[in-house]
Amino acid sequence: MTAFSLDGKTALVTGANTGIGQAIAVAMGRAGAEVICAARGSCTETLEMLGRGREVRLDFSDPLAARDAFGEPVDILVNNAGTIRRADSLDFTEADWDEVMDVNLKAVFFTCQAFARAALARGAGGKIVNIASLLSFQGGVRVPSYTASKHGVAGITRILANEWAAKGINVNAIAPGYIETNNTTALRADPDRNRAILDRIPAGRWGKPEDIAGTAVFLASPAANYIHGAVLNVDGGWLAR
Questions:
Q1: Catalytic residue numbers, as ranges
Q2: Among 87, 97, 195, 211, which has the minimal tally of Cβ within 10 Å of its Cβ?
C-alpha cells in the first residue's frame, strides 16, 4: 500500500450527490476506500460512477443530522454539503442567514463531533476534511452568511486540529477557488462577473470538481499524517494575485 492509498478505509462524504462532493467520493473510491455517500437527495449517479459503495440520506438543514451516522467504523469524514443565498447585505433576511449557517457551519461542527466521539470510543484515529472556500479568506459580494460560515469553517478546522491532533485525528480543510458547480451557475451566467473572475485566475479557467478531489484524497491518506489544521487553497492561483 502506498502512502496515498485509501485501501481498507471507509469514507463518508457529505453532499456526495453532485459537484465537488461527487468528485471526491469517486476519487476516494478509486483510491481504495469504501465510500458512504451522504446527501439530502439521491446519490444513485455517484454510486453508478463508483461501481460500489452505498448511500445514506442526511439533510443538514438539521445540524445534528449525522449524530447517529457513525455507528459503524468510519475512518474518513469529508464535510462537503453546503448551501448559499445571494442578496445585498441591506436586504438579507434572518431566514437566509440561519439556513446557510445551519448547513455550512453548525452541521459541520456537530458532524465532526459525532465522528470524533465514535472514533475515539473505539480507540481509533481518523481523518476529517472540511470544505472551506476562498471566502474563508476574503469577503465576497452579496453572500454575507456564506462568507461568515466559511470563515467559521476555517476556524473550526483549526480548533479541532488543536484539540484532536494528539488523539490521532487529523482535521484539515480545502478552500476551493471558482469551481463549475451548481453554486456558481449564476456567476458563470453573468458575462461581466464571469470575465472579471477569469481575468484574475492565473490558470485562466474555472476549476472543475475533479481539481478538488485529488487534494481531498491526499489529506485523507497516510501521506498527510503530519498535516493538522491546514486550509489548503486549490484555486488556480487566485489568492496568489
A1: 146
A2: 195
